[in-house]
Design goal:
Blueprint (H helix, E strand, L loop, with lengths): L1 H5 L7 H6 L1 H29 L3 H18 L7 E2 L2 H14 L1 H20 L11 H19 L10 H18 L5 H15 L29 H33 L5 H17 L6 E2 L1 H10 L5 H17 L1 H5 L3 H15 L7 H6 L2 H17 L2 H21 L3 E7 L2 E10 L1 H4 L14 E11 L2 H16 L3 E5 L3 H10 L8
Parallel strand pairs: 4-5, 5-6
Antiparallel strand pairs: 1-2, 3-4
InterPro entries: Membrane-Transporter-like, SLC26A/SulP_dom, STAS_dom, STAS_dom_sf
Main location: membrane
Pfam families: STAS, Sulfate_transp
Length: 497
């Protein structure tokens, strides 16, 4: 009975939310807040990619609606992102919009292929320290992205932003019935209009579309030359998009204490990007900032909020474009600053945590943050973090390997302890007293395990060195798996040089 009570309560399903006015209201309002926050972001990312703002807005609409049905992680938001914009910007700049759309479609197809190939399973090889670094780096990048909106602006921006921060922090202590970000945006927009406060607005970021996106086929030659142009960018887009999406999904899993299908998420991201390209969008992936607004700040838990985020986005820019255009950017900046603070894992940098944490784990976390923030590229940051974690782990495990020697009559006995792989076995041949040992040597491996060909080659080299001295060597204590692995490779690896 205790175990049942200890289990986390499952998140509500779409049907449960539709039947509950309270839950449905929460999902609807969350979707509205996300849609408002998506508009300036989509416009900004379009500018980064060097394309018309409509491409970013159309992409955000298509991806949010598509991923609501196709994705594996409920309540996660996918739309046009800065990471994808940076990857595909050279295509638009050098070859035009049609080649960009073709790149987005091919990138989506590659994501589907990677999903079918089981790339989502690789998530298990990303250490916790890299995940923490990824989250902290994203929080810093979200904050940095707000800084330009606070520099060289009218003085009225600062009290508006401060008021937004106060609303975001204080309102949840009074009521959580209405998302604090929505209240902040509405009140601050109303105040700016009533008092005639002149500050930068959403409308200043770029023109909003006036028509629905239309289905189209990119006007590019279907030739190998075209494939040669777009393929490298499509591969980069597919990898970066999946990496950011899967890691964001893992973060939401942790926040909500619920699992999600990473394979389905991979397939959904690919299909959403294909649809985005076919409807004239610039492509994208999961958005950590908007997802945190949806899940943490607004409390959404189902696909309804994701779907409505896309629907509200299109409705706002088409039917209420004039209203959306007057929203002060300072209000959205306040929302995103609170999101960045909530996203950062403050526990990871507490002195008590740092004292308990192995130094190598802290180094990996800091390195992941530093590289990600420096390059503004999550794929590079996470890649460097994973490599660093692997190297430090191998070094730590290798240092735990030991070889002890004892002599009993005419037999020298060596006991090898620890995990034997390339990092620990490369100097294994130096651990033996070849010229001082008697005619019979026993190497006991019962406290170790043979993991790779490097270890088998090292053991063969030890036996060969002893054989040159007329000494016989006996290996004992290997478990069945290690023994079969050793027997299959021993003698065929060129040891003894």
């Amino acid at each position: 009975m205790t175990d049942v009570l200890a289990r986390p309560r499952p998140e509500p399903t779409v049907l449960q939310a539709l039947r509950s006015p309270r839950l449905l209201t929460r999902e609807v309002l969350a979707g509205l807040v996300v849609a408002i926050a998506l508009i300036p972001e989509a416009i900004a990312f379009s500018i980064i990619a060097g394309v018309d703002p409509r491409l970013g807005l159309f992409s955000s609409f298509v991806m949010a609606v598509a991923i609501a049905f196709l994705g594996g992680r409920p309540a996660m938001i996918s739309a046009a992102t800065g990471a994808i914009a940076l990857v595909i910007a050279p295509v638009a700049r050098e070859h035009g919009v049609d080649y960009l759309l073709a790149t987005v479609i091919l990138g989506g197809i590659l994501q589907v292929i990677l999903g079918l190939a089981g790339v989502a399973k690789l998530m298990r090889y990303i250490p916790r320290s890299v995940m923490v670094g990824f989250v902290n780096a994203l929080a810093i990048l979200i904050f940095i992205a707000q800084v330009p909106q606070l520099i060289g602006v009218p003085w009225a921006v600062y009290p508006i932003a401060a008021a937004g921060l106060a609303i975001m922090y204080l309102l949840p202590r009074v009521t959580k019935a209405i998302p604090a970000p929505l209240v902040a945006i509405v009140l601050l927009t109303g105040a700016a209009v009533v008092f005639g406060i002149s500050v930068p607005t959403v409308g200043d970021q770029g023109a909003l579309p006036e028509s629905l996106p239309a289905l189209l086929i990119p006007n590019v030659p279907f030739t190998l030359d075209t494939l040669g142009i777009i393929f490298p960018f499509a591969v980069a887009m597919a990898v970066v998009g999946l990496l950011e999406s899967l890691m964001t999904a893992a973060l939401v899993d942790d926040i909500t204490d619920t699992p999600s299908s990473k394979t389905r998420e991979s397939l959904g991201q690919g299909a959403a990007n294909v649809l985005s390209g076919l409807f004239g969008g610039m492509g994208g992936c999961a958005m950590i900032g908007q997802t945190m607004i949806n899940v943490k700040a607004s409390g959404a838990r189902t696909r309804i909020s994701t779907f409505l985020a896309g629907v509200f986005l299109l409705l706002l820019v088409l039917a209420f474009g004039d209203v959306v255009a007057i929203i002060p950017m300072a209000a959205l900046v306040a929302v995103m600053i609170v999101v960045s603070i909530a996203t950062f894992d403050w526990h990871s940098i507490r002195p008590s945590t740092l004292r308990r944490m192995p130094l190598s784990e802290t180094i990996v976390m800091v390195l992941t943050v530093a590289v990600t923030v420096w390059t503004h590229n999550l794929a590079i940051g996470v890649g460097v973090g994973v490599v660093a974690a692997a190297v430090l782990f191998a070094r730590r495990v290798a240092s735990l390997t030991s070889v002890t020697r004892s002599v009993e009559g005419d037999t020298a006995r060596y006991v090898v302890e620890g995990e034997l792989f390339f990092a620990s076995s490369n100097d294994l041949t130096t651990r033996f007293a070849y010229h001082r040992d008697p005619a019979h040597v026993v190497i006991n491996l019962s406290r170790s395990h043979v993991w790779d060909a490097s270890t088998v080659a090292a053991l063969d080299a030890v036996r060969t060195k002893y054989a040159h001295l007329g000494t016989t060597v006996e290996l004992e204590g290997m478990n069945d798996t290690a023994a079969r692995f050793h027997d299959r490779l021993s003698g065929g690896l060129g040891a003894g040089h």
